[in-house]
Design a protein that fits this description.
The complex is a heterodimer. By secondary structure, chain A is mostly helical. Chain A has helices at residues 2-7, 9-34, 41-49, 63-71, 84-95, 127-131, 186-189, 200-204, and strands at residues 113-117, 137-138, 146-147, 167-171. In chain A, the strands form two sheets. Chain A has a two-stranded antiparallel sheet. In chain A, helix 3 (41-49) crosses helix 4. The chains are: A mainly alpha, B alpha/beta. The structure holds iron/sulfur cluster (SF4) (4 copies).
């Protein structure tokens, strides 16, 4: 053995490398099959950030298709109005790109709404039931329909198909339950973390 | 002497407690109207069981607990329910919330209470908890968590220490202090009930050393009961649940955990009295002790006030001068909040109404830049890094905030109090907490919607697949039948059907080529029917005396039809 290495150093090195490479290659190949991840993890992660309103304002038929388009590099990250700035920020963090302002072409960020059917005007046509992406509308043919508010995502898709225009989009939550503390306002907003870190606008003034 | 521990940080703000301690507890009396919010506690709002116009008696149930974490509301005096409507409630938002409004009749007649047990020790523990729940007791120290829920979770753990929270560390407030001075025996009766429920190894009543009278009264009332009064040096915020536990036992509640996790339950002294009233006397929670203080009242002190009493009524009992007070604070100067409407009611958690003059408690000066002095970190009783949290809160970096244990912040305000730059730090934390909770909720909701959306997609696909399968099955069956028929030598049913269809079509095409006589006959019949109808209309019009124009037009039509009929009849005639 030692003799062979001494006589044929190059060959010995090649053999040694091949001897290492084969089993590891086999191991990796096996692992790739054995531990294959189902689906596309990056799409799932993007989809996990999107608000799942399923409204289609982004130009795709639902959040998942949009997630797929982002993952494929076909769409910008700023096309989802319900997700708003916070959503864009989260996407930018995930994909490690610069956050962009929301693309106004796709709509504006607005407060969350929920659909409300004026029940005495409903004719029971079931058109809204078919339009709702999350099965939030309850009703049968020729019966009055109603929206399960806790399931409604406020996507607006049921409003247009209603032939008698009896669906209103109302603000989702108001009153005490929806109230929360805001960051301090005005004067106190000018606080800088360290004194030398002065606000450039103020410094100029 | 037991070994005492210390918690990190803490501050010594001016106490200002003597003002409200010069007089014993006074009854506040019965106002003209009581306003009882349905949500005076943490958890789901209670559901009203009375209707406007109904007569109710003192202690009668007005609204029942609507879920596990909820508390009922009872009538604090007798009278008429005048409305159930939105009224301003004591809440930092200044918003309104549903309230039961009670027009008091001044007679203060009690409803017939369920007879209290001769000896509560003979009752099962769940029955005792039921009584506490039905009495509507919610933590009276300020947080307002339903007491029965806390005790129930306590019975699920092995509790070795019951701590009665009596430091009342916040400046100005003396409600618990006066209760301990004047009603020590009641407190101990309540403690005995709690002891019976939780069966702890030891019971400690924690107090700061600035309340010698209360300490004396409690020690006197204890007698030979296995309850220990533990006195420790005054320092804010020793009344914080986690801080008090650390002082008394040296143990720390894990971040995000509950005291019950380490075998400890804390109850406020006011809550102990309410438990005693509920279990020993069968009385629901309808009043509480509230401190009224500040330089804008002439006679500050502690009042026994009916829940739902409008704050301005209570303030007037203490000689309030609205022109002098800058603002109305519920709670103390550190953790309280400004109430914009003095008509808001006193609720189960109102331990203090503070009406300071502008000089006494000036509005905070404008915030300056953070100078990184680190005083806030030294003061923080939760061992957090307030300036770091402040930075992250401004940048809305939720992940970092959580990593730095924002949710361990008890919002005590010690950091903001020491900050030389007057940065309203606590406000940042409150906003950041609310923001993160909202984000979590949104995320849960999104996840839920996603599942529903995917379930719907799957259902639609399944339905489509089923339809497709049915179609395929039908086609296959037809083909099979055809093959079978062909094999038998008979005619192929599909071919036969096609042939039948073709035959029918051919027949239809032939039909129009009926004989000219038939055609003429059909046309004649149609014309005759039309004529008859027109004649009838003409007769009707004449009978009804219609306008000449119409009658003439009808006559013309009849004539035309007659001519047409005649021309049709000619060929055969
Ligand atoms: S706009 Fe946003 S919420 Fe609407 S479908 Fe597209 S990704 Fe979903
Ligand atoms: S009810 Fe209407 S608005 Fe709500 S999710 Fe369904 S379709 Fe969208
Ligand atoms: S408010 Fe929060 S951060 Fe500030 S001192 Fe108190 S516990 Fe610490
Ligand atoms: S006390 Fe105020 S100035 Fe000092 S480090 Fe903390 S936030 Fe900054």
């Amino acid at each position: 053995m030692a003799e062979f290495i001494a006589q044929q150093p190059l060959l010995a090195a090649l053999l040694a490398l091949a001897g290492l490479g084969l089993p590891f290659g086999a191991l990796l190949g096996y692992a790739a099959v054995r531990f294959r991840t189902e689906g596309n993890p990056i799409v799932d992660q993007i989809n996990g950030i999107l608000p799942q309103t399923q409204c289609g304002q982004c130009g795709y038929p639902g959040c998942r298709p949009y997630a797929e388009a982002i993952a494929a590099g076909e769409a910008e990250i700023n096309q989802c109005p319900p997700g708003g700035e916070a959503g864009i920020q989260a996407l930018a963090d995930l994909l490690d790109v610069e956050p962009l302002p929301l693309d106004a072409e796709h709509g504006e960020e607005s407060e969350r709404k929920v659909a409300y059917i004026r029940e005495d005007e409903c004719i029971g046509c079931t058109k809204c039931v078919q339009a709702c992406p999350v099965d939030a509308i309850l009703g049968a043919a020729k019966q009055m329909h109603t929206v399960i508010a806790s399931e409604c995502t406020g996507c607006d898709l049921c409003v247009e198909p209603c032939p008698v225009d009896c669906i209103d989009m109302l603000p989702a939550a108001t009153g005490l339950g929806a109230w929360h503390w805001e960051l301090p306002q005005l004067a106190s907003r000018n606080v800088e973390i360290i004194a030398t870190d002065a606000n450039p606008k103020q410094a100029a003034a | 002497m037991r070994k005492l521990f210390d918690f990190h940080g803490g501050i010594h703000p001016p106490e200002n407690k003597h003002q409200s301690l010069s007089e014993p507890i006074r009854p506040a009396g019965i106002p003209r109207e009581l306003v009882l919010p349905l949500s005076q506690h943490t958890g789901a709002a209670a559901a009203p069981v009375v209707r406007p116009g109904e007569q109710v008696l003192k202690g009668q149930l007005l609204a029942a607990a609507s879920s596990l974490v909820s508390a009922p509301v009872h009538a604090p005096t007798s009278g008429t329910v005048s409305a159930i409507e939105e009224r301003p409630v004591p809440h930092p938002s200044g918003l309104s919330a549903p309230c039961i409004v009670l027009e008091c009749d001044g007679e203060d007649r009690w409803v017939e209470l369920p007879a209290p047990p001769a000896d509560y020790r003979e009752l099962e523990i769940p029955a005792l908890l039921e009584r506490i729940r039905d009495a509507g007791i919610a933590g009276m120290g300020g947080a307002g968590f339903p007491t029965a829920v806390k005790l129930t979770s306590g019975t699920h753990h092995h509790i070795d220490t019951l701590i009665i929270n009596g430091p009342e560390c916040e400046p100005y407030i003396t409600a618990d202090d006066s209760l301990m001075r004047e009603r020590a025996a009641d407190i101990l009766e309540g403690v005995a009930v709690l002891r019976h429920i939780l069966r702890p190894r030891e019971v400690l009543i924690g107090l700061e050393d600035n309340k010698p009278e209360a300490i004396e009264a409690l020690r006197h009332a204890i007698g030979d009961q296995p309850v220990e009064v533990v006195v420790f040096p005054t320092k804010y915020p020793s009344g914080g649940e986690k801080q008090l536990i650390e002082i008394l036992t040296g143990r720390q509640v894990p971040s995000g955990g509950l005291p019950a996790d380490i075998g400890i339950v804390c109850q406020n002294v006011g809550t102990a009295v309410a438990v005693r009233d509920a279990v020993v006397h069968g009385r629901p929670l309808i009043s509480r002790i509230t401190t009224v203080t500040g330089e804008a009242v002439a006679r500050p002190g502690n009042f026994e006030v009916l829940l739902g009493t409008p704050m301005h009524y209570l303030l007037e009992q203490a000689g309030w001068d609205p022109t002098r007070s800058g603002r109305l604070v519920m709670g103390g100067p550190m953790m309280g909040f400004t109430v914009p409407h003095p008509e808001a009611p006193v609720i189960k958690t109102s331990n203090c109404l503070l009406v300071p003059t502008e000089k006494e408690l000036p509005s905070p000066p404008p915030a300056q830049a953070c100078i990184r002095c680190g005083l806030c970190a030294e003061a923080c009783p939760a061992s957090l890094l307030p300036q770091q949290l402040f930075w992250f809160a401004r940048g809305k970096e939720s992940e970092k905030l959580e990593q730095h244990n924002l949710f361990d912040c008890i919002e005590c305000g010690a950091c903001a109090w020491v900050c030389p730059s007057h940065i309203p730090l606590v406000q940042y934390y409150r906003a950041a907490k609310a923001d993160i909770i909202q984000q979590r909720r949104d995320h849960e909701k999104a996840e839920h919607s996603r599942l529903r959306f995917e379930a719907r997609q799957a259902r639609l696909e399944r339905e489509e697949a089923e339809r497709e399968a049915k179609r395929a099955a039908r086609k296959q069956a037809a083909e099979k039948r055809a093959q079978a028929a062909a094999a038998e030598g008979g005619e192929d049913p599909i071919q036969a059907a096609i042939a039948r269809a073709q035959a029918k079509k051919a027949a239809q095409q032939q039909a129009p080529e009926a004989s000219p006589e038939e055609k003429a006959a059909a046309a004649r019949q149609a014309a005759q029917a039309k004529l008859a109808k027109m004649q009838k209309r003409l007769a009707d019009a004449r009978a009804a005396g219609e306008e000449d124009k119409i009658v003439t037009a009808l006559e013309a039509s009849v004539k035309k039809l007659e001519e047409k009929l005649a021309s049709l009849e000619e060929p055969t005639a």
